[in-house]
């Protein structure tokens, strides 16, 4: 069966710096109409930095939507037209101070396909060379190192809650175990 939805009308509701919101009227496969609220986002990149000692680097930062500090892999927003690997290099340097000899693609994830077209490209960074942070003026974070075993345990106990970080860490576990 073909479940495609045909877009009949698009109303632009909000055009912000990070997101755009539109209301779409669509025709469903049963010929009925429905509305879809869609957040448009340029996407982002997340990087799993792995040290020579096989530790992973995470950042701890306050996230206003949840009103709590989260432990995450470094990440950032793609600029319009920017290549994800270039963004990965930039965000790694900004948030950890590190540069990498090797950055390799792990996967792409759709964080919430019910209402946004955002894609997050996940990379692994190896051969790290430490340097100094270069944070945005409204960005505050701590850089922390953990063993892979510690990170997996923090996923199991709910300390690491961020989806992109969980996916990257579990991809690394699967890579090691394959």
Q: What order do the helices and strands follow? A: EEEEEEEHEEEHH
Count of helical segments? 3
Which CATH-level-2 architecture of the largest domain? Alpha-Beta Complex
Mean pLDDT: 96
Detailed description of the structure:
The relative contact order is 0.19. 21% of the residues lie in helices and 44% in strands. The radius of gyration is 19 Å and the shape is elongated. Strand 2 (19-27) and strand 3 (33-41) form a beta hairpin. With 178 residues, the chain is of the alpha+beta class. The model has no long low-confidence stretch (mean pLDDT 96). The chain folds into two domains: 6-41; 44-177, Nucleoside Triphosphate Pyrophosphohydrolase (Alpha-Beta Complex). The strands form three sheets. A four-stranded mixed sheet has the order 7-4-9-8, with helices on both faces. The protein has a three-stranded antiparallel sheet with strand order 1-2-3, with no helix packed on it.
Topology:
Elements: E1 6-15, E2 19-27, E3 33-41, E4 44-49, E5 55-63, E6 68-72, E7 75-77, H1 84-96, E8 99-109, E9 120-129, E10 142-147, H2 148-156, H3 163-177
Parallel strand pairs: 4-9
Antiparallel strand pairs: 1-2, 2-3, 4-7, 5-6, 5-10, 8-9
Brief write-up:
By secondary structure, this protein is of the alpha+beta class. The chain has three helices and ten strands; from the N terminus they run βββββββαβββαα. The strands form three sheets. A four-stranded mixed sheet has the order 7-4-9-8, sandwiched between helices. The chain has a three-stranded antiparallel sheet with strand order 1-2-3, with no helix packed on it. The protein has a three-stranded antiparallel sheet with strand order 6-5-10.
């Amino acid at each position: 069966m073909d479940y495609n939805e045909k877009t009949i009308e698009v109303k632009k509701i909000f055009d912000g710096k990070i997101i755009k919101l539109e209301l779409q009227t669509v025709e469903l496969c049963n010929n009925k109409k429905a509305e879809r609220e869609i957040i448009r986002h340029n996407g982002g990149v997340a990087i799993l930095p792995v040290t020579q000692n096989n530790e992973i680097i995470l950042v701890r930062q306050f996230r206003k939507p949840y009103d709590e500090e989260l432990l995450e892999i470094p990440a950032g927003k793609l600029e319009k037209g920017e290549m994800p690997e270039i963004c990965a290099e930039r965000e790694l340097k900004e948030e950890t101070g590190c540069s990498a000899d090797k950055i390799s693609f792990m996967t792409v994830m759709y964080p919430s396909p019910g209402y946004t077209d955002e894609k997050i490209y996940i990379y692994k960074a190896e051969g790290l060379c430490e340097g100094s942070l270069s944070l945005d003026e409204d960005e505050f974070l701590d850089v922390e190192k953990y063993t892979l075993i510690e990170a997996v345990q923090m996923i199991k106990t709910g300390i690491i809650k961020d989806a992109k970080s969980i996916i990257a860490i579990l991809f690394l576990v699967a890579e090691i175990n394959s």
